[in-house]
Inverse folding.
């Protein structure tokens, strides 16, 4: 949970939503082979964090993409 929260917070601070953008997405690469899709969903549901991203995706080592 801490790592996911830190990664989202860091990216939210570095990136600003630009005016006129319809969608604002974040894609994070999963460097942690023990963390699967369910682990990320549980972690994301447990953290309370403000961000402007419309969608957050995780890309895993098998080049699969899933939405948080």
């Amino acid at each position: 949970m801490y790592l996911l929260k830190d990664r989202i917070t860091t990216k939210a601070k570095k990136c600003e939503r630009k005016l006129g953008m319809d969608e604002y997405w974040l894609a994070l690469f999963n460097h942690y082979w023990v963390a699967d899709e369910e682990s990320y969903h549980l972690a994301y549901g447990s953290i309370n964090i403000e961000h402007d991203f419309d969608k957050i995706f995780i890309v895993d080592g098998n080049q699969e993409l899933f939405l948080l």
User: Anything to note?
Assistant: Strands lie at 25-29, 55-59, 65-67. The chain has one domain: 2-67.
